[in-house]
């Protein structure tokens, strides 16, 4: 059997992929601070091996910036702050509870729908 590369092993360990928008509107709304907070709390919670954070360009939700999306759950978070970044790491990633006050859209049955009532994450 072929030996797995480090990249393949990392992919197998990954449980969440967080997209942080750094497009013009989100940058103006301090998404850099959100990104720094995300990275800090991922490290503090020892999630480096299971969480990947990727910076993106505009995700077309500028009026709700800064925007963050968490996969595989497909939850779009709006008007992010460093404090809500910490909540996402501690509540969404660790306890599998959507941060309801910041959640805008959730992926349900293959479609993104307004996400006002769901708290837990169905798998
Ligand atoms: S710049 Fe972030 S959603 Fe448009």
UniProtKB/TrEMBL annotation:
UniProt cross-references to InterPro entries, sorted A to Z: Thioredoxin-like_sf
Pfam family, one: 2Fe-2S_thioredx
CDD domains, per database record: TRX_Fd_family
Source organism, top-level taxon: Bacteria
SUPFAM superfamilies reported in the protein's UniProt record: Thioredoxin-like (SSF52833)
Keywords: Iron, Iron-sulfur, Metal-binding
This protein's name: (2Fe-2S) ferredoxin domain-containing protein
């Amino acid at each position: 059997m072929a030996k797995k590369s480090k990249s393949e092993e990392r992919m197998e360990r990954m449980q969440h992929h967080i997209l942080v928008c750094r497009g013009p509107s989100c940058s103006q709304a301090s998404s850099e601070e959100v990104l720094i907070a995300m990275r800090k709390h991922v490290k503090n919670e020892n999630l480096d091996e299971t969480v990947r954070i990727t910076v993106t360009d505009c995700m077309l939700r500028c009026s709700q910036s800064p925007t963050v999306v968490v996969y595989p759950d497909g939850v779009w978070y709006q008007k992010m702050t460093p404090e809500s970044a910490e909540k996402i790491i501690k509540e969404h990633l660790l306890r599998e509870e959507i941060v309801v006050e910041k959640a805008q859209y959730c992926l349900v049955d293959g479609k993104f729908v307004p996400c006002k009532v769901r708290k837990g994450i169905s798998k």
